[in-house]
Structure formats: C-alpha cells, structure tokens
Amino acid sequence: MDLFNTELDENTNLLPKDGTVNYYGFLMSINDANHYFNTLLETIEWKNDEAIIYGKHIITKRKVAWYGDTNFSYTYSNTTKQALTWTKELRELKALVEEKTGETYNSCLLNLYHNGNEGMAWHSDAEKDLKKNGAIASLSFGAERKFAFKHKESKETVSLLLQNGSLLVMKGETQTHWLHSLPPTKRIIKPRINLTFRTIVLKNTF
C-alpha cells in the first residue's frame, strides 16, 4: 500500500494488523526544521556505523551517533555503542516529541545519510536492550525519503514519504511482526538526518 498521496491523520494506524504506526506529519515550521538540520549536522559527534555480519567487519558510509540520559550501552549488528550526553538541541527535540506523543524516551540513535545512495535494508528494532513493545519516535530532517514496512509473514507492504521536520512513531507489536527499511534511490542527492528516540531497559545499563 502506497500512502504517498494520502492525507494522513496522526490518530490513524498505518498498519493493517499486528502493530501500530502513526504519522504526525510536520512537527515544526520548515525554517525550524532547517535550523535543526544544520545544527545537528555540525554539532553531533558523527561516526561511520560498524557492523559484524557473518563474521565480517563492515564500515558503512552512513554515519551514526548515540545519545542518552546516562552512558547506556546499546548493541546491534554485533557491535556495542556507549551513549553520549544530550546536546541542547537534542534535549529540545526530545521534549517536543515527548509532549506530542505522550511517551517518554531515555536515548536517541541518530543516522546521517549523505544522499539517496545510502539507505537501510529490511530490519526490525527488536534488540534485547530496548523496552519490549515500547514506542520508537522517528524524527526526520533534510531530504524527503521513502520509508517502507513489510509484514514478516504475509509480506504485505506499506510505504510513505517522510518529510523534513516530520514525526513517525512505531509502537506495540510493530517490531515483532514488521520489518522496515529506507530504500536507496539515485534521485536524492541531498543529505537526511534521522533521530529515533527510544527507551533502553535500565537493567541493561551501566
């Protein structure tokens, strides 16, 4: 199902079953979105992402950063990251997202995609460090990119366009039953920054 040209309501579940995804659309003005994009681009401690896949050490072109309430550890793709201290802008955005969604978050994983050639393959955010069935709030800045969901069993798909300054929230059993991806595209030449606010289970922190 393609939702590109559909008027979406933040209370509407975009998934037909087995999970909940809400798209809030623009969370701020374009001027504010551009301000945050430029500030995050310059102030975040970006590093190339790393993964160990089938025993092979992979370094991606995409860059990432991990921030949180304390020095949480977060393990995915067989690598572990230690959370950095919130910046002023990340605190502002965290408060904005929490107010809008009614959820609370204690950490944020940021991704920097330099252009459309960089994307994310099908996956689910179901690491043991994360709160089970907890909300994940995805805030987008910069280039508009297609975002897609695929049901793990039925293979049903849902896709939409994530706009500059927009918010999407995944919660409930979404990570259990659905995969999501950011498909690469040669049409996009501008960068995109994505913030995913999450809740790390405290028993897994240092």
Q: State the low-pLDDT regions, or none.
A: none
The helical percent reads 10-25%
* Annotation field: number of helices: 3
Structural class: alpha+beta
What is the typical, i.e. mean, pLDDT? 90
Write up this protein:
With 206 residues, this protein is of the alpha+beta class. 16% of the residues lie in helices and 42% in strands. It has 3 helices and 14 strands. The chain has helices spanning 30-43, 88-101, 174-177; strands spanning 20-26, 47-53, 56-68, 73-76, 79-82, 84-85, 107-113, 120-123, 136-142, 145-151, 157-162, 166-171, 178-182, 192-198. Strands 1, 2, 3, 6, 7, 9, 12 and 14 form an 8-stranded mixed sheet that branches. A 4-stranded antiparallel sheet has the order 8-13-10-11.
Short description:
It is built from 3 helices and 14 strands. With 206 residues, the protein is an alpha+beta fold. The chain starts with 19 loop residues before the first strand and ends in an 8-residue tail after the last strand.
Explain the layout of strands and helices.
Layout: E1 20-26, H1 30-43, E2 47-53, E3 56-68, E4 73-76, E5 79-82, E6 84-85, H2 88-101, E7 107-113, E8 120-123, E9 136-142, E10 145-151, E11 157-162, E12 166-171, H3 174-177, E13 178-182, E14 192-198
Features:
single chain, 206 residues, alpha+beta, eight-stranded mixed sheet, four-stranded antiparallel sheet, 3 helices, globular
